[in-house]
Write a structure and sequence with these properties.
Layout lengths: L5 E2 L3 E2 L5 E6 L2 E6 L4 H7 L6 E2 L6 E2 L12 E4 L2 E5 L10 E3 L1 E2 L6
Parallel strand pairs: 3-9, 5-10
Antiparallel strand pairs: 1-2, 3-4, 5-6, 7-8, 7-9
Amino acid sequence: MNRIVDHPILGPLADAEVVHIIVDGVALTARKGEMIAAALIANGKNTFRRTVKRDEPRGIYCGIGRCTDCVMTVNGIPNVRTCVTEVAEGMVIETQLGSGEWQ
């Protein structure tokens, strides 16, 4: 996992309940209350969607829900901004191609 467990200013990472999510068919764990993007990065996933024209990878950019680089399909709903959406137990998350498709 790629987490900061002892931040020089914020201090040690507090304990949190673990939730289970499925990302592109792979079972992962996340910390309850964290954003989807943070959980994915902590699990080594940095590409959240790919562009239609050039198939270029996109990931976290602004981190505050203003751009669309971090959008993914979550529980069948495309264009979910993962940087401002909390993980939930059993959530199914998929890398999105372009603007995504409703399932």
